[in-house]
Design a protein that fits this description.
Helix content is 73%, strand content 0%. With 102 residues, it is an all-alpha fold.
Length: 102
């Protein structure tokens, strides 16, 4: 998502610049440029800023999510899904729901 927002923001800013140049060249009516240039440029700048901000915050979000039990949020070992207590509970639930004969 951050990459999309950055790319989208840059493209919208480029479109606003093209609109401004086309207005100065007389290809597009000056009235249209006066109405649309600032909102389009602000939208592009906002999308670009949000994309950059999300890119900068992504490593912190991964650190917060990583290493937590999915049931209680307690710290867990690397490559685990549950803490020790919930792992025992999950194994017991699996054993209880397993058909007899296995």
């Amino acid at each position: 998502m951050p990459r999309f927002l950055r790319t989208f923001g840059i493209l919208v800013l480029a479109g606003a610049t093209i609109l401004l140049v086309a207005g100065e060249a007389g290809v597009v009516a000056r009235k249209i440029v006066d109405v649309w240039f600032m909102p389009v440029a602000q939208a592009g700048a906002l999308a670009l800023a949000i994309g950059v901000l999300l890119s900068l915050l992504a490593p912190f979000a991964r650190m917060v999510r990583q290493g937590r039990c999915v049931r209680c949020g307690a710290s867990i070992e690397k490559s685990q899904t549950y803490c020790h207590d919930h792992l025992k509970t999950a194994v017991q639930e699996f054993r209880d729901h397993r058909p007899s004969g296995y």
